[in-house]
Amino acid sequence: MTNAALPSDGTVVVVGASLAGWRAVETLRREGFHGGITLVGEELHLPYDRPPLSKQVLAGKWPPEKAVLADRKRTAELQVHEVLGHRAVGLDAEQRQVEIDDGTILRGDAVVLATGARPRQLPGTEGFGQSDGLFTLRTLDDSLALRAAVTRVASCRVVVIGAGFIGAEVASTCAELGCRVTVVEAMQVPLSNVLGPMIGAHCGSLYGAHGIDLRTGSGVADVRRAAGPAPGLAVELESGDVLEADVVVVGIGVAPAVDWLEGSGLKLENGLVCDDRLFAADGIVAAGDMARWTWRHDGAEEQIRIEHWQVAAEAGVAAARSALAGRSDAPPFTPIPYFWSDQFGIRFQVLGNPGGRDEVQLVEGSLQEGKFVALFGRAGRLRAVMAIGQPRHLMGFRPLLEAGSSWADALAHPLT
After folding, report:
1. CATH, residue 33
2. Which of 3, 14, 96, 399 could tie 112 with a disulfide, CB 3.0–4.6 Å?
3. Are 29 and 23 in contact (CB under 8 A)?
């Protein structure tokens, strides 16, 4: 098979027991594929949802199983061969052969790559781990371990490094659990690289309003074990301040998990480079946080990698359909990105792909009342819409994003 459609009785190897990988599995069966499906996952867990990990699971409001996307009954119904607890270590793209860490070689008529991303490590912390009080949050086990750590002592001292969406959610949840929380952010204004300085400043104001100490404009110079008999860590800032903590959570972003694809013959550049149909090569498609695909919109195109739940879910579906159709006949993947973040009792919702240098205009509500709709414009076009407390108005702009509407038309658009 080269550009041809996938035979209905062929074989597919899905690498990554993730949201994107699981959506690909479901789609293959729903679209009439009757062949063999092997699902490879580095964790022992079946696929689960990640958004609750920094919120409901960390807060103890959800048992872990509530975040699961598929149980053993469902995988049996879909006749999925599970290879869990094993990491993919190599790929022969031409032969569509995946090598896993025990030496097993899995071959498919098509391969779906969905290995996601891994948390970035803070330089200088390589010698620390969860037993020392240093955490990242990416997996279900991370969430459960972090919850155990922050609830072990009353008024646990928590330092969160990074005031992005994950950092804000962790800080919010820990504060809700009664922890004493300090958040460190290297930028002067949190989220200004995504939402711009005006809305970023509004996001930053929420920390103090909820009893959290936000330190901006200073990076981390060192993390070391705290002096004295009590366990803990000391975080030294570039400003010279030292923050003592029982728990330190590093939330400085993620990197696409593509290192295992070195030498595969596929193009790696800030992720796995794919075409507009999510093909990285004939018979090989990718989805989720690892995929950097050609996104066509507004009569232009760009290579883009998006780390959002909705894009991963839609890409899993699209990748499966592309594999089934073959490279010549697969439709392009042209989503309207959507993401949300729950923090401080507030839900942020964003449609589109905002950037920190976009023109931003409030068209409903105000920052003072904490409920608003904001439009993001770039190069004369509407690029994104953000809302707090205005979900109906937010979705009213979706058709404009789909149509590639001009900035002027977006500003004149009546709220619905």
Report:
1. 3.50.50.60
2. 14
3. no
pLDDT in tens, 306-326: 999 999 999 999 999 999 999
∠ CA 218-224-228 to the nearest 5 degrees?
A: 120
pTM as predicted: 0.95
Residue 58 domain flag: no
Establish if 2 belongs to a structural domain. Answer: no
Residues 148 and 206 in one domain: yes
CB 188 within 8 A of CB 217: yes
Distance CA 269, CA 260 (A): 13
Per DSSP, the residues of 141-166 read: HHHHHHHHHHTSSTT-EEEEE--SHH
Quick one: how far is CA 24 from the chain centroid?
A: 17
Q: How many residues does the chain have?
A: 416
In a domain? residue 60:
no
Q: What is the pLDDT of residue 229?
A: 72
pLDDT digits (tens, 9 = 90+) for 108-164: 999 999 999 999 999 999 999 999 999 999 999 999 999 999 999 999 999 999 999
Mark whether 136 and 248 lie in a shared domain. Answer: yes
202 and 367 in contact (C-beta within 8 Å)? yes
Q: Which 3 state secondary structure label does DSSP give 74?
A: helix
Question: What is the longest distance spanned by two Cα atoms in the chain?
Answer: 66
Domain span at residue 309 reads 11-50+69-118+256-325
Check: CB of residue 168 under 8 Å from CB of residue 144: no
d(CA 245, CA 359): 39
- If DSSP codes are grouped into helix, strand and coil, which group holds residue 405? coil
How confident is the model over 249-298, as pLDDT tens digits?
Answer: 999 999 999 999 999 999 999 999 999 999 999 999 999 999 999 998 87
Number of structural domains the chain divides into: 3
**174 alpha carbon, distance to own chain's centre:** 20
- Classify residue 62: in a domain, yes or no: no
DSSP secondary structure, 300-320, as one string: EEEEE----HHHHHHHHHHHH
Contacts of 172 (CB under 8 A, 6+ apart): 210, 212, 342, 343, 344
pLDDT (0 to 100) of residue 71: 93
Q: How far apart are the C-alpha atoms of 294 and 303, rounded to whole Å? A: 5
Mean pLDDT of 36-65: 97
Backbone angles phi, psi at 190, to 5 degrees: -60, 140
pLDDT digits (tens, 9 = 90+) for 357-391: 999 999 999 999 999 999 999 999 999 999 999 98
